[in-house]
Amino acid sequence: MSEKFKNSSFQVRLPLFLGLALAVGILIGANGFRPSGNNPQGTAKSYLKFRDILSYIDRDYVDTVNVEELSDFAINKMLEKLDPHTAYIPASEMDVARSYLEGDFDGIGVEFNIFKDTVYIVAPLSGGPSEAVGLQAGDKIIKVDGKTIAGNGITTQGVFERLRGSKGTKVNLTILRRNEKKPMDFTVTRNKIPTVSVETGYMVDNRTGYIKVTRFSANTYDEFKSTLVKLKKKGMDRLILDLRGNPGGYMDRATRMADEFISGNKKIVYTDGKGTKYDNETYAHVRGEFEDGPVIVLIDEGSASASEIVSGALQDNDRALIVGRRSFGKGLVQMPIPLNDGSELRLTISRYFTPSGRSIQKPYTEGMENYEMDILNRFQRGEFFHPDSIKFNDSLKYKTLHGRIVYGGGGIMPDVFVARDTMEVSNYLNELYSKNLVREFALTYFQDHKAELQKMPFEKFKATFEVSDRMLDAINKEAKDLKIKYNDTEFKRSKNLLKNNIKAYIARSVYGPEGLYPIFHETDPDFQQALKLFDQANKLNKGYVQLGINKFRVEN
């Protein structure tokens, strides 16, 4: 796990508003009360009423109360009456909220994992301050600035609070290193650490490129463009763009990415708000790096917001074949409004629409709880396994540039459905992951065989390395030590997937993300089906399309 925040109430709601299609450049100062132009008398009256109640509570209530907490609570309850993506972020959480969308943060630069109540360094980030002082993969951080963090229930958030800090400040780490008898002390000077949103880009074969984009942050477009150019130089003439699990981010980074594929001045997205103040239309306007050549976009139920802008624009312009499962359905645009105390209101000010006119936003009129349960409800309805469980409303029927039928009303429905593959997933495997055992086992194996592994070229590793039964026996023994009950039936069911995952994580330690994904993809059904669909993608790219939705469908 890299230095990412989790475990707060903000994180619980993160998938619902991390993917905010931010109207970049629109900022409103909140310096004092300003009545609404639409209903000045009503807003002024409500403002005075709230002010009076808060004043009475602070002055006369029988017990001492924290009026700031009461105010925050009232604000959050009020916003729940609007939509699921309008959000209030307290000042104390603003740094974390920004870090998801900004291009970098201040820290020591390590990827870490928590295992058995201990923080392990998975890898020091290349060129970062931790690498510079000599921290290594597998080091256990036992103290930070003299205070013990091992064995006391440390959380990911707790690690962040101790390791992050302003650029130029120092943090003292005490670590235990394998084969070293005594603890070792390091002083690390914090610096700017770049966050990466294009997790990997590699050549699958001599003509097929693959790019994985995890979110749309400040640097995403530049990272994407650089990776695209690099792969073209290696001979790429067809591409798989992976937006699965991508919750979104900056809208303009998404439209610039789409523009790399769409020729001429075709429409990419438009927004429609109250009146015309926040209405906007975005068109392709640059000569893109990959305007010709088949493109397949992978999406799933975790693809939201900016991911849906890209996939919707490419689908409506018949520029890419969309493969996977129906996307999240987040089509509301938020504007960040800074408040006087350092907190921020992210207010929905418009909806966005694909070029054909589809609103991607799924319904939210039945309340926040129902909205948050939507993905689980899809699973229970069988939508992840059978596309026929999705009912389309004929009143929301639209046509792509060349006449294919697509539907609005909630997310992007792929052109080719691929059912979620759960054949090899078991409760036993999930238990191994819940205890971080798979990642930790792979890291330990890498440490024990580091010299020989680092001499091996990746292609040789990929072709010849095998996870042995002896290794599996060892991981099962560790699982038993962690009180994970062994289940032979479930183990046999998950055995091949477990072997693949262990091998992939070992490759991650040796070769980085470029080693991880090519091995993961060997058991990835969405990816494997995509490789078989370039004929359809090429026909689509050349304008040879057949009318109707989901003409090509794959079920496992």
UniProtKB/TrEMBL annotation:
The keyword Iron does not apply. InterPro entries: ClpP/crotonase-like_dom_sf, PDZ, PDZ_6, PDZ_sf, Peptidase_S41A, Tail-specific_protease. GO terms for biological process: proteolysis; signal transduction. Residues 93-166 form the PDZ domain. The keyword Hydrolase applies. One of its GO terms (molecular function) is serine-type peptidase activity. GO terms for cellular component: outer membrane-bounded periplasmic space. Belongs to the peptidase S41A family. This is Peptidase S41. It comes from Adhaeribacter arboris.
